[in-house]
Amino acid sequence: MPTHPVQTSQPEPHLERTRRMLKEHPELAGLFGPWRGTAVLLLLLAAGQLAVAWSLRNAPPGWLLLAAWTVGAFVHHGLWVLLHECAHNLAFARPRANLLLSLVGNLPIVVPSAISFRRYHLLHHRFQGDPAWDADLPSPLETWLGDRGPLGKAVWLLLFPALQVHRVTRLKRIPMLDGWVVLNVVLQVAFAAAVVEAWGGRALAYLLLSTWFSVGPHPLAARWVQEHFLVHPDAPTQETSNYEGPLNRLAFNVGYHVEHHDLMRVPWHLLPRVRQLAPGYYAGLTVHRSWTRLWVRFVVDRSITLRSRVLRGEQVVPNWDGSTLGSARLPSGQEAVPIPPAQSA
Question: Are 200 and 236 part of one and the same domain?
Fold first, then answer.
């Protein structure tokens, strides 16, 4: 497996697959469009998490940690997935309605992120692997941590929520602030103050711990490795991967990541139908069966680093010390193959 970035001159891989899929299977377009059930689920999760925070307002610190690890992390991960649906306008038809819903769903997460995520995530779809536009690529600081071996990667998982925010400083061409971002920040600050005033600091601590565990030191964080890291020994340049383990149901089908990149106008509950209607496009893909196993393997396996990604575009991500990242050459000398070509159905 490549321990340095694989540079490719090939364009973003999913757009061409989308064109071919819709040409060969026009019935896939019938899956497009918003589903209002997402809004109901998001509001129920948010309300339920606030109820848990209220119930823990006087709990000892140990109970806060346990509850955040075993319950809160899964709830907040689910909220992130449904906010992701809002980013694609898949809860309501009108973008403004999705924006407003995402502001409400962001409240229990405490950290203002819904609006910024929407902006950067949509660019990730259009410019996957391009350091100038793709906020999903690790920053120089992250790659430096990954080079420290298992301990460095463990620290990366520990600090991942903060390191994600640091990534956007690399994307000079993308404006960071607008009215919606400011509104998001103001609402989150007011919400946090209201929680402390009404329920006390421990309720807020539970919500913050739930956010931290949902994207950081928790097996759920393996999702960030699963989606676009080069980790398959039998498919060393497959840059988009699925997770098909038991937690996928709790995570609202977020494991169907190839299907989502192929047809991002399909709501989460219909993603399994994509494969049923176009099975030839997914027959050759290598998948992950366990986030927990991948989480442990990522930390201990020195052949996986924060550089194990496919890069495209003209910009090069520098090392933390200012030197230039090297690019791995495949033994065959051929271009990286982002995902296997479609098999005959």
Answer: no
